[in-house]
Amino acid sequence: MDTRELLYRILFRGLVEIRAEAYTIQNKQIFFIADLLHQLPLDLASELSEDASFDDVLKSLQERSHEKGSDQWLTQVITEVTQYRQMQSNTL
User: Does this model's pTM top 0.70?
Assistant: First the structure.
């Protein structure tokens, strides 16, 4: 296991623990975010090593988001991040 894979697995483990704690304390918003994202680090590790692109990983995340009924949250985050990056680019 190289350092990149180790870091992905640490992130995965952290998100799983956040999801478990959110379930325990009945924090639906945090549970739902952690549940959606916990697989992302492993997807990045495996799919990118198999010549998949970041676009493929994002599409997979969007499909998972749709299946879980959380596409509104993911769409909002993507929009906010994109707008923030555009604002940063305009100030340079």
Answer: yes
